[in-house]
């Protein structure tokens, strides 16, 4: 999650959607005031949690006034990404913090069947995009969604109201791609029947994905103006000193990552 008071935006990083790339690009900007790029600091804060956890700051700087955006991904590709992660041999190690998520050799079809069970409430609960971006009152908590499969195109549209300079560089800065494919074959055999099951299982996400172009168009047609709050970062520091310190550490880690990426040494 990234908050820019200077540019008036909030970026939400939904896991496995390609958000790490945008975190990397945005987090290295001087006008990205609050950068939470570690999971334990709030990298993947969803909209409702952000509104609840930062209610004091949003009382001073209304949440509704920010331009809020995130990334969305086709549900079949997203669940395939989660399957790759949870199938990784690294998770077989009982000392791994995510060992409880290990799929123990299950096939993708078995994984989907597990999620289809109405009784399932285990560690591999699928993080729905609809849930991630919906506020407690049931309304959508973002104004604009960038489709993973059309990232540069959608970013170019967003930049007509929020010029961040990302559209031209994002395709050459895709991170986490190799690490997300370790442990199992890159290409998964997903036939039409299994695809249909996944789409039925996550029908709300499918609908949100389909609605994204029209939602984005309506937002852009409303001629939004991002607020400028130069004192916001200082108020955040005073209100949430621990997270402000975490933000400083995360910015430092991103600068180190940038230097490693630049010389070809970065490995996630």
List descriptors:
five-stranded mixed beta sheet; 11 helices; 7% strand; single chain; 43% helix; alpha/beta
Written account of the structure:
The protein has 268 residues and is of the alpha/beta class. It has one domain. The protein has a 5-stranded mixed β-sheet. A hairpin with a 4-residue loop joins β1 and β2. α5 packs parallel to α8 and α10 packs across α11. The radius of gyration is 19 Å and the shape is globular.
Quick structural summary:
The protein is α/β, with parallel strands linked by helices. The chain has helices at residues 19-27, 47-53, 55-60, 75-87, 108-116, 129-132, 151-158, 192-201, 203-221, 232-239, 241-262, and strands spanning 2-4, 9-12, 34-35, 67-72, 144-147.
Helix content: 40-55%
Number of helices: 11
Point out poorly predicted stretches: 177-186
DSSP strand count: 5
Radius of gyration over C-alpha positions, nearest whole angstrom: 19 Å
How would you characterize the largest beta sheet? Answer: 5 strands, mixed
Total individual domains? 1
Overall 3D form: globular
Order of the strands making up the biggest sheet: 3-1-2-4-5
Structural class: alpha/beta
Distance between the termini: 19 Å
Strand-residue proportion: 5-15%
Overall pLDDT level? 87
Order of helices and strands: EEHEHHEHHHEHHHHH
């Amino acid at each position: 999650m990234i908050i820019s008071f200077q540019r008036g935006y909030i970026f939400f990083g939904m896991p496995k959607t390609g958000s790490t790339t945008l975190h990397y690009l945005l987090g290295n900007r001087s006008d990205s005031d609050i950068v939470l790029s570690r999971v334990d600091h709030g990298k993947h804060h969803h909209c409702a949690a952000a509104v609840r956890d930062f209610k004091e700051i949003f009382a001073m700087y209304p949440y509704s006034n920010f331009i809020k955006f995130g990334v969305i991904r086709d549900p079949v590709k997203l669940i395939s990404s989660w399957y790759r992660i949870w199938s990784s041999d690294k998770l077989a190690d009982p000392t791994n913090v995510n060992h409880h998520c290990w799929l123990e050799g299950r096939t993708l079809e078995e994984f989907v069947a597990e999620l289809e069970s109405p009784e399932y409430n285990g560690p591999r609960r699928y993080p729905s995009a609809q849930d991630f971006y919906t506020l407690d009152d049931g309304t959508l908590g973002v104004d604009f969604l960038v489709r993973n499969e059309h990232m540069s195109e959608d970013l170019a549209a967003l930049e007509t109201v929020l010029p961040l300079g990302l559209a031209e560089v994002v395709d050459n800065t895709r991170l986490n791609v190799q690490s997300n494919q370790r442990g199992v074959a890159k290409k998964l055999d997903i036939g039409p029947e299994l695809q249909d099951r996944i789409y039925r299982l996550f029908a709300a996400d499918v609908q949100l994905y389909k609605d994204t172009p029209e939602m984005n168009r309506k937002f852009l047609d409303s001629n939004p103006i991002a607020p400028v709050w130069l004192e916001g970062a200082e108020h955040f520091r005073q209100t949430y000193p621990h997270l402000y310190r975490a933000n400083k550490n995360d910015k430092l880690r991103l600068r180190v990552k940038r230097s490693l990426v630049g010389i070809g040494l970065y490995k996630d």
